[in-house]
Design a protein that fits this description.
Length: about 90
């Protein structure tokens, strides 16, 4: 997937996760005193967990992409004779 689209989806997912967190916080402060698991709390908790796993995966994909690009660039630069002369300068 293109990096811009991935970043747009990450920001969109982050906005949804912030809203889900706000719902959980409002319920904690103004909800019922007894312990009740309501359906919207379960959904908000699942959204938060999905956000954590999605962002961790995005960071991993970007790190792997940059690592491969760095290795490929070093390999490409080292194979050119012009850059071999620059190493000795």
């Amino acid at each position: 997937m293109e990096i811009r689209l991935r970043m747009i989806l990450a920001v969109l997912h982050a906005c949804i996760a912030v809203l889900a967190r706000m719902v959980v916080i409002v319920h904690e402060y103004s909800g019922p005193v007894e312990y009740i698991e309501l359906p919207y709390l379960i959904v908000c908790s699942l959204i938060r967990e999905a956000f954590l796993s999605y962002m961790t995966t995005v960071i991993l994909i970007i790190a792997i992409d940059r690592g491969i690009a760095t290795v490929a660039w070093c390999w490409q630069v080292s194979s050119l004779p012009f850059f071999d002369k620059l190493k000795f300068l």
